[in-house]
Design a protein that fits this description.
Blueprint: H1 3-10, H2 17-26, H3 36-46, H4 49-53, H5 76-114, H6 122-130, H7 133-144, H8 153-159, H9 165-171, H10 174-187, H11 191-211, H12 240-247, H13 282-293, H14 306-311
Length: 313
């Protein structure tokens, strides 16, 4: 079989909304919490199948028996609620990451202003000179793309390569700023700024996950499905419905890639939450950011409003 044949076989057919509902039913999804009429409106007006159905990975499947492969205890209303929680989570975290970016830049400007002998230009020139060709091309490309920009183009044309730091940080991406922040920390031998650089990388991962619409679905850890020959369903599995809620609290961000796109949230542990685990490790990141940049970020105060869940997303 050729690669083209394999590609064709891997393709899934396009389904109408009614066919999508039938497909979910065939997978064991019920419509008790959300009638089919409301589900049809959700899939056609408020979201789309691929995005909503992705949350099904948080639920177990039956193994063996007549209903092999069907989901256990999964209702369409639960998928809709998970999408609504994801939506609220992203809209809660994104403004916070933008504030952190702003105050990080403000802190860097304060450092430049207060350092004797720092003119604001040499630090940028030294940074650009330190970059390997590939990284330099990326930084220059970020700036060149703004030449005809309605809002920033005038800055690019006016300074034409000789950028002061207060202009430079407005022209480069957040990822570029974080790399520049690290360079400044090393040049000034500032241990605190070096630590903050790693915090900013985690903030960037959260920001991009929120901004690019990546689902904050965190797979339940380590609940292995073991077939029950009598009932055709898993045995001794954790309750993934409950773990789905706990997963939001057990996030630990891994190091992001070099570019701004394609970043994901990744879980820290490939196992079930155990007694004695640190609840909500995100609070540790919150405390570190608050100390570093003087922010009050209510990460622990999730604005849960059941009325929004009933509306769906």
């Amino acid at each position: 079989m050729t690669s083209d044949d394999a590609s064709i076989r891997a393709r899934k057919p396009k389904l109408t909304v009614d066919e999508q509902i039938d497909h979910l039913r065939s997978k064991g999804v019920t419509f008790d919490l959300c009638p089919e009429e409301d589900a049809r409106e959700t899939l056609s007006e408020k979201t789309y199948y691929f995005k909503l159905a992705a949350y099904r990975v948080l639920f177990d499947k039956r193994v063996g028996g007549e209903r092999d492969g069907e989901y256990v205890g999964l209702d369409f209303g639960q998928l809709r609620d998970l999408a609504a929680i994801d939506h609220m989570l992203r809209y809660t975290l994104l403004p916070m990451t933008l504030d952190i970016e702003h105050f990080a830049k403000a802190k860097l400007m304060r450092e430049v202003t207060e350092r004797v002998g720092e003119d604001g230009y040499s630090i940028v020139a030294d940074y650009l000179a330190s970059l390997p060709k590939k990284s330099l091309d990326i930084r220059n490309g970020e700036i060149r793309r703004l030449e005809n920009d309605r809002y920033s183009g005038n800055l690019v044309r006016r300074y034409d390569g000789a950028y002061p730091v207060w202009v430079f940080v407005e022209l480069i991406s957040f990822g570029g700023f974080i790399d520049f922040y690290r360079f400044c920390a090393l040049k000034w031998d500032d241990r605190g700024m070096r630590k903050e650089h790693y915090l900013l990388k985690q903030v960037k991962a959260v920001r991009n996950a929120c901004a690019h619409g990546h689902r904050q679905r965190l797979r339940a850890r380590g609940a292995q499905r073991r077939p029950d020959p009598e009932r055709g369903r898993p045995r001794a599995c954790g309750n993934r419905t409950e773990q789905a809620g706990e997963a939001f609290e057990n996030v630990e961000l891994k190091g992001p890639a070099d570019n701004d796109d394609g970043l994901r949230l990744q879980g820290a542990h490939q196992r079930n939450p155990q007694q004695g685990d640190v609840p909500y490790t995100g609070r540790r990141l919150h405390r570190q950011i608050r100390r570093a940049f003087g922010l009050v970020c209510p990460i622990g105060l999730f604005p849960f409003r059941p009325g929004l869940l009933e509306q769906g997303v």
